[in-house]
Amino acid sequence: MTDLKIAVVGAGMIGQRHIEMVRGSGQCSLCAIVDPSPEAARLAERLAVTHFETLGDLLGKRAPDGVIVATPNRLHAEQGLQCIAAGVPALIEKPVTDTLDQGRELVRAAKAANVKVLVGHHRNHSAIMAKAAEIVASGVLGRIVAVAGTTLYYKDETDGYFDGPNAWRREPGGGPILINLIHAIGDLRGLVGEIVEVHALASNRTRGFAVEDTAAISLRFADGALGTFLLSDTAASDHSWEHTSAEDMAIFGAAQSDDADCYLISGTMGTLGIPTMRLRHYGSPAERSWRKPMRKSTIAVEAADPLERQIANFCAVIRGEAEPVVSLRDGVANLAVVDAVGRSVRSGEIIRV
User: Fold this and answer.
1) Distance (Å, rounded) from C-alpha 146 to C-alpha 126?
2) What is the extent of the structural domain holding 54?
3) Which residues contact 159 (CB under 8 A, 6 or more apart)?
4) Before 293, cis peptide (omega within 30)?
5) Of 115, 134, 149, which closes a domain?
6) Could you tell me if 278 and 199 lie in one domain?
7) CB burial of residue 272 (10 Å; 0-12, 13-18, 19+)
8) What is the CATH number of the domain that holds 174?
9) Confidence at residue 168, expressed as pLDDT on a 0 to 100 scale
10) What is the spatial distance between Cα 53 and Cα 42, in angstroms, rounded to a whole number?
11) pTM for the whole structure
């Protein structure tokens, strides 16, 4: 069933992955690429689809069934509002906008126009994360008390990631807090619940960009659990979701570290490592002691491409058959936590979300 016509706005790294997903889907087809670059025009020609330089050009001439917005963060709000005004459902890459006020404006506009807007937190479509959430909800870990997370890797400055059309990643609106931490915030909210307080430190000492390259964050969850998170795009490490899960290899080409975790969820009865899915727990309160061995197992997860699942959900939402797995409100809730992290960095204070 390929009756749905989808346009992709932005033909950069993640945009090209979306193009691939749309073209490979049995539920929709690619009708246009929107991007002012000559490279995007050549890509559209090669794929035999229409090329537009701006989203306004597309919406003024042809209203597709849906639009995927995969442009730099600073453009998300404007382009999301354009889709809403045209009555076209949109899937906007994370972060949904680069400021919290803009995100809330999108929520108001979408509600008033009754237009569906999804946010590209694709890990919410991950089979690994779904299984992890199931284990946490089962109670086998007991009451969750502590969470540890890492996103540590080295982004190469010589491969164009920070240069040319990607130079926005050096400036406010870019940086790993907004680009990368927001993924983990979505993961941890899904596993442990709402984050209500943050305290953060950040540094740009290594790269010297106008945005941070390293951050250390403390988290308080609504039910009282505490968490820590280490984030750096200049650390020579493979303790990141991209390296440990292997789910994003098609995007980033990251080698898999198949014996490492990027999240540890610890409760009063056990701990789950993610994404290895190594479960360590006590069978009963009588067994619970640091002097006694824990029961050990590894939970099997059937592999699935979360981006493929995301496109399927987008198509189902357009057809009116499903609700968004990641709604606009979900995306703004993740952005609210990241906004609080930024405010904590600037003030040095604990910030309520």
Assistant:
1) 23
2) 4-115
3) none
4) no
5) 115
6) yes
7) buried
8) 3.30.360.10
9) 87
10) 12
11) 0.92
Alpha-carbon torsion, ordered 137, 248, 262, 188, to 10 deg: -40
d(CA 278, CA 281): 10
**Domain closes at, from 115, 134, 162:** 115
pLDDT at residue 187, rounded to an integer: 97
Residue carrying structure tokens 């390929």: 2
- Pair (143, 246) in one structural domain: yes
User: Does residue 209 come out as left (phi exceeding 0), alpha (psi in the -120 to 50 range) or beta?
Assistant: beta
Q: Which tokens in the block code for residue 285?
A: 């309160």
pLDDT < 70 regions, the chain: 1-2, 248-257
* Whole-angstrom Cα Rg for the chain: 21
- Hey, what are 73's tokens? 């963060």
**pLDDT (0 to 100) of residue 173:** 82
Q: What pLDDT sits at residue 253?
A: 59
Residues counted in the chain: 353
Residue 330 falls inside a structural domain: no
Residue 79, domain CATH: 3.40.50.720
